[in-house]
Write the structure tokens for this entry.
Amino acid sequence: MEQKGDLLNWETFSCSICMDLPKDPVTIPCGHSYCMNCIKSHWDEEEKSNRCPQCQQTFTQMPLLEKNTMMAALVEQLKKTGLQAASVEHRYAGPEDVICDFCTGRKQKAIKSCLGHDTVSAAAAERTERQRELEVRREEIQQRIQDREKDVKLLQQEVEAINHSADKTVEDSEKIFTELIRLIQKRSSDVKQQIRSQQETEVSRVKELQEKLEQEITELKRKDAELKQLSNTEDHNQFLHNYPSLSALSESTHSSSINIRPLRYFEDVTAAVSELRDKLQDILRDTWTNISLTLTEVEVLLPEPEPKSRAGFLNYSCEITLDPNTANTRLLLSEENRKVKRMDHHQSYSRHPERFTNWRQVLSRDSLPGRCYWEVKRRGIVYVAVAYKNISRVGWGNECRFGYNDKSWALECYQNGYKFGHNNIWTSISGPGSSRVGVYLDHRAGLLSFYSVSETMTLLHRVQTTFTQPLHAGVWVWYSGDSAEFCKPK
């Protein structure tokens, strides 16, 4: 009976954390008491969860711990009567030793029925659940590691494939360009040989005529001397006797057989070679654009997003130069072919098959790179456009007008607003008026955007499509005096 009473007293007054009589006992708002150091250490170990170890009540703020003087006096009285904490064997029931959730900080072994720790089973269940979640997260992480390792291996294989393809392409390209150079050298040698051969033929022909003329001149001089001698004969009978014996003149070389060219000779050959050079430059320029566009498609990373600021757009700035051979004769180019102005009278341009004959339009000399940005400063009504090079040039039909066919995209800029057109489908656009329009092109992504540019940039219209050919920048200037200038990147 005495042992039972002692155990009951011990269970009633002991600290459920250290399982001993409380030292500096404190009572928290839920009513449970602990050693001051025990409850502080417990909350520190629990990362300031402010939760009662026994009833699991949680406090929004750590309670103010003040000494429970009544409990301290009672504990001192119990000590004087000889009441001591029960031994470990006496305090725990059951044969299985486990780690008590509340004793782990002190590495004390306890039994599942650890006295004062009735909440151990709930905490253990929660630990088990969290343990399962942890294992699931570890499995996810390990699976992600495996996936990323596979991705790294695939990327490494792609790097090797890119390097192999690039090396092979460089080698093949060098062979092709070498063959092309040899072909041009061969054609150059052939032209040179033909020119020399023709030179020799023409010189021989001229020298042959020259010799005939010199022979004729000698004969004429001889005949003239005979006639002069006969003319000086004083004896009339002698004169009449010798006159019939004069030989007749040989047939003269007619002047029409002497073909004197008007200082041209082989200039036509030079013109033909120059024309060949121009055509070859056009072919190489367009081919290089196709090569550039093809190279931009060889990207391991995802395409870059459209910039968000003007500074970002300016990173893709390209300088646009207009092609005089495409300019309508009512357009005057200036500022190193970056500015165009509508005039009342025709300009003295030569005939060219790429010139717009009717609409007051002009295209850029070079095609646009894969990702680029440019700005157009306008005055009056101006269409800011992009178009395929094979857009029609002759006549008044819609097939020639920017925005009225499937080969061009155009933003009409006028005083009170904007319109966007493609394939003769026009959309009215509201936006801040500005004398400057920015254009962003991502050829591979099929993205074309128009912006109103002032102190800020405002998106006017964005096109998402598929471009099948290289694009050229262009403008269409409407009224006399209106102008458009492609600004230099700044």
